[in-house]
Amino acid sequence: MKKGLVLEGGAMRGMFTCGVTDVMMEHGVTFNGMIGVSAGAAFGCNYKSHQIGRAIRYNKRFCREPKFCSFRSLLKTGDLYGNEFCWHTLPDELDVFDREAYRADPMAFYAVCTDIETGKAVYHRCDAGDDLDLEWMRASSSMPLVSRPVVIGDKKLLDGGVSDSIPLRFFEHIGYEKNVVILTQPEDYEKKPQKYFGLIRLALRRYPNLVKAIAGRYIRYNRTLDYIREAEAEGRAFVVRPPEKLQIGSVEHDPDRLEAVYQIGWKTGEQCIGEMQKFLAE
Length: 282
Fold this sequence. Notes:
- The structure is a single chain.
- The protein is α/β, with parallel strands linked by helices.
- It contains 12 helices and 8 strands.
- The chain has helices at about 15-25, 40-50, 55-60, 70-75, 85-95, 100-105, 130-140, 170-175, 195-205, 210-215, 215-235, 255-280, and strands at about 1-5, 35, 110-115, 120-125, 150, 155-160, 175-180, 235-240.
- Strand 3 and strand 4 (about 120-125) form a beta hairpin.
- Helix 1 runs parallel beside helix 2, helix 1 (about 15-25) packs across helix 12 and helix 3 packs antiparallel against helix 12.
- It is globular and about 50 Å long.
- The N and C termini lie close together (about 10 Å).
């Protein structure tokens, strides 16, 4: 039976996920495969490279660095989160991403992106942890309006959360029968229609299928939550959720707030790790 780990995105709500997954790494929890969306891909890759604490460490260290994330970066480069700094300088020099450990781990790792021409999800397996794989992770976490499309081959890609925010169905479809799903919203959350949709439609008018995908995202998301609840009730999924709404936004320049959300994740992980291990062992 193939066991999988499914990570939702949510920008800096991903610090909650990092807290949970760091506990899981501390306890030696392993999977056959893992799939991350947006921040779930950008931070989740550290699970495969076995780098406990790396994501919270570099986010706290650089959250006030304009080259890391700022409207100055957006105006200068077209990317809120600076490409050169975040995906080259940081993992190559400042807080090194352990590519050798990543490659050595047999767990499959997938990143989910959205093809902006079709509005459909693209699921890419990242085996090498090389620059091309990091481009897929960058594409997965590149939010519309504040990021340039990432061009890989013949595809123009953006945030995977637009097309498949929580890809449990996909993972089950490719053979993962028992899955741990880490969400970044509490149990009672329900996604609402996109705010400022008129602005989005105007800004992205060259990509009508992407606009359509954004318009229907809240419907698909809420249906996916229902599907996850069914999978949880039937014993196919073990779901980890924040105990309450996380007080953090898409952009966060306060290291103390990043740490607070991470600690919520850590405590939640500690509370559920025994039940999770039992679920995976059954």
